[in-house]
Amino acid sequence: PYKYIHIGGDEAVKKDWEVCVNCQKRMQEEGMKHKNELQGYLVRHIEQFLRERGKTVIGWDEIVETGLPEQAVVMSWRGTPGGVKASAEGHDVIMSPHGYCYIDAPQDAPCTEPESIGGYLPLERVYSYDPAPKSLDESVRRHIIGVQANLWAEFIPTDEHYEYMLWPRA
């Protein structure tokens, strides 16, 4: 029932596409020279399918590298460059850079924290993040529509641990 559908785009194992008979056939049929073009083809196909049904695609910033469909929204997780690039091209962006927004990383000295992924992400660093700094041109800033904090649960075995990781950083 929602307007937005997140299609991912970050965990495509493209090395397998180089030996996949069906992938190679599609690339040849479409005149593609690089495996990244295959991902772009799929993203555009999915975006059109969803747009025809009144939905808007969101994808991780890897989809910036493969030719963005006109209506796609980008979620920038690998830092801010992908989001800034997409914004400059007129795409709406949700900033979610891992260096500020991945709250599954420890919030205190990692050696004193429960097992987790990533480095050290204290409250001060999370709160220091400005997703649309004044140094960006207004034409870019206006497309940065929000921020998302990510709390992946691979290393979160209990509700109490979840609450600890979430607050107060969220």
Topology, element by element:
Blueprint: E1 4-6, H1 21-30, H2 35-51, E2 56-60, E3 73-76, H3 81-88, E4 93-95, H4 98-101, H5 123-128, H6 138-141, E5 144-147, H7 159-166
Parallel strand pairs: 1-2, 2-3, 3-4, 4-5
Word description of this protein:
With 170 residues, the chain is α/β, with parallel strands linked by helices. The chain is 34% helix and 11% strand. The chain has seven helices and five strands. The chain has helices at residues 21-30, 35-51, 81-88, 98-101, 123-128, 138-141, 159-166; strands at residues 4-6, 56-60, 73-76, 93-95, 144-147. It has a five-stranded parallel β-sheet with strand order 1-2-3-4-5. Helix 3 links the parallel strand 3 (73-76) and strand 4 (93-95).
Helix content: 25-40%
| Helix count from the secondary structure assignment | 7
- How many β-strand runs? 5
List SSEs in N-to-C order: EHHEEHEHHHEH
Q: Structural class from helices and strands?
A: alpha/beta
Summarize the entry for a quick read:
The chain has helices spanning 21-30, 35-51, 81-88, 98-101, 123-128, 138-141, 159-166; strands at residues 4-6, 56-60, 73-76, 93-95, 144-147. It has 170 residues and is an alpha/beta fold. The two termini are 26 Å apart.
Salient structural properties:
single chain, about 170 residues, alpha/beta, 5-stranded parallel β-sheet, 7 helices, globular
